[in-house]
Known about the structure:
Layout: E1 7-13, H1 17-28, E2 37-43, H2 50-63, E3 66-71, H3 77-86, E4 92-97, E5 100-102, H4 106-112, E6 119-128, H5 133-137, H6 143-150, E7 158-161, H7 162-167, H8 180-190, E8 194-205, H9 211-231, H10 237-257, H11 264-287
Parallel strand pairs: 1-2, 1-4, 2-3, 6-8
Antiparallel strand pairs: 4-7, 5-8, 6-7
Helix pairs in contact: 9-11, 10-11
Amino acid sequence: MKKVPPVSVVVCTYNRRKMFDECLESLLNQSYPKDKYEIIVVDSSDDVTDELIESYQEKAKKYGIRLKYLYQEPKGLAAARNLGIENAEGEILCFTDDDCIADRYWIEKLVEGFDNEKIGGVGGGIVTYERTLVEKCIPKVRPDIYISNWAFIIGANMAYRKKVLRQIGGFDPLFRYGGDDNDIGLRVRLKGYKLKFVPNATIYFRQRTSLVDLVSQHYGYGRGLSRIYKKFPNFPLIGHVVRLIVFQFFYPFLFIFKGYKKKLLCALINSIAMWAYIFGMLIGLVLEKYPEDRVITSKLDFLKIH
């Protein structure tokens, strides 16, 4: 008989009430046995009240699912996830974000990915919505490439063994504005565990719908990655930045030369986002600091980027 391990689903939310409500609904409607998983919400929003929490708990009770609803002052996503870990009873912890909707079989497929003890973390497929022009222009997310080449499970769709997370001390709260999911993947790999991609463990992700929000998001990604470099000095960030800068000078023109003039606008949108990403990394290289006593100088031989 196949083992059905207990699971804790951790979702953190901050001032996105409507999105969170839709996310929670999808987590309550999972195929996984209802007595084998719990949902832990860490809410740092401005509108949290006892009445609001009670309404969510009553809703979960109707589905027969345990819901732990925790409030935390805004301290960043890593700190919020750590609070979820502290309160989790499951052997496997599944993480998603409040701007995501989980496929009905999401938990079930993630758990199936832990098919041997050397698998420390599992990531699933990410399908993005395409409603606005900006959303339609953003390239498809490739979590398989991130996992195999970067040792990075995207935070919107990741699962780890609880014992592994506790072994490495959980998420790093110094990563307040991105990069915490990069960091956790690197530290799990350094402990000798493997990361695995399971394509049919699907999360539906709402991309940024405006150019301003997209630029802000990618700038944050860049700052987060620069902090990774400050913590892991053997992370090949400099070469990554140089390649991106060289590529971005020619990227929009490739579409003209190939006759894709109708796609030129999308190329420009992506180029603007990537320049924001590069700018974030460059600013981070100058301004980001990381405590010297916490720097990890281990070689990252498992990375496939140079």
